[in-house]
Design goal:
Blueprint (H helix, E strand, L loop, with lengths): L7 H8 L4 E2 H8 L3 H14 L2 E5 L7 E5 L1 H14 L3 H6 L11 H9 L3 E3 L1 H13 L11 E3 L2 E3 L1 H12 L3 E7 L11 E7 L1 H13 L2 H9 L1 H4 L3 H11 L7
Antiparallel strand pairs: 1-3, 2-3, 4-8, 5-6, 7-8
Helix pairs in contact: 6-9
Length: 240
């Protein structure tokens, strides 16, 4: 799949901000000239971008997204970028340190890794709604893909910065209608993070530990199945 190739997502996202000529595009996304030229030809062949000549001097060839390319960018942004505006709009004072213990404990209970920020949001939401954990500090509002808390992302980014959690992006193929996140950001405990998370998990009450372990069945669901469950059971939290 072309999205798996290096520099393809970067090129598409750069062109989503407006048409560019080749040299400007290379400056924006980095990489060798030969790689960028190759990816441009492949994207032209796929019909995701098109080129036209500028109408003024120096009459350079301008690259722009096609309609299919714009749709692809929407999918690329779902997991990796759709939350940026929400975070800026709702920016607030950093949460107390003990907020982050819930994410560390959840990662530990899920075996050390959670695949996707969307899944992490839903697991924390269900921890409060499904299992009645009242101490959970996050407030969720209806947003894209259902219940969303901007503070969850703030906290997990802090954990990544502190070296307790590592993140990496994974490009996925769309196989089911609900599985339309083309880029997924996965979160995994580092060795230091696992040690800290285990200590935190042991300090939780037996009820809280049992609730977190019970979330494993939701974590094992396909994303579409998990979203369907949340949408149907908590419709008021799943629509903007």
């Amino acid at each position: 799949m072309i999205l798996r190739k290096s520099k393809v997502p970067e090129i598409l996202l750069a062109l989503s901000r407006g048409p560019q000529h080749v040299r400007g595009l290379q400056s924006c996304v980095g990489g060798s000239a030969s790689t960028i030229q190759l990816r441009i030809r492949e994207l032209l062949d796929e019909g995701l971008i098109c080129q036209e000549e500028s109408k003024s001097w120096p009459y350079q060839k301008i690259l722009k997204l096609t309609e299919d390319g714009r749709e692809m960018v929407k999918l690329l942004k779902l997991e990796g970028g759709f939350l940026t505006a929400a975070r800026k709009a709702t920016r607030r004072t950093r949460a107390p340190r003990d907020h982050k213990k819930w994410i560390l404990a959840l990662l530990y209970a899920m075996g050390g890794e959670i695949k996707g920020s969307i899944r992490m949001q839903k697991l924390l939401f269900l921890l409060g709604k499904e299992f009645g954990i009242k101490k959970l500090p996050y407030k969720f509002s209806p947003f894209l893909f259902g219940p969303f808390s901007d503070q969850v992302l703030e906290d997990v980014e802090d954990l990544v910065d502190s070296g307790l959690v590592e993140s990496h992006r994974e490009i996925l193929e769309v196989r089911r209608p609900m599985e339309d996140s083309m880029v997924r950001c996965n979160y995994k405990l580092t060795p230091e993070g696992r040690k800290k998370a285990m200590e935190i998990f042991k300090t939780l009450s037996s009820e809280e530990r049992e609730a977190m372990l019970s979330l494993r069945r939701f974590n094992e669901m396909e994303l579409g199945e998990l979203l369907g469950y949340v949408y149907s059971k908590y419709p008021r939290h799943s629509r903007m």
